[in-house]
Amino acid sequence: WEQLTSPDQPLDAPVSVPARPRPLTGNERAFTAMVRNSLFRRVELFARERWDELAALDGRSAWTSERWRE
After folding, report:
1. Cα→Cα distances 44→18, 34, 47, 68, Å
2. pLDDT: which is higher, 67 or 13
3. Which of the four, 25, 31, 41, 67, has the lowest number of CB atoms within 10 Å?
4. Are 65 and 51 in contact (CB under 8 A)?
5. Angle at the Cα of 34 (from 47 to 18), degrees rounded to 5?
């Protein structure tokens, strides 16, 4: 395919393969901080009784604002 789009390029040219992105858990310290901050945000919203914001964090899960209020 490359030969069709760039006929001047030799056939044996090295193919560059993009590096795989690091997994989310690749940096343990950053992952721990991310989880800690996420949980703190939930505790903070719960303490302030901001049920709608808590439900928005959960997306499509069964935890609606009414369920958080209970």
Report:
1. 41, 15, 5, 13
2. 67
3. 25
4. yes
5. 155
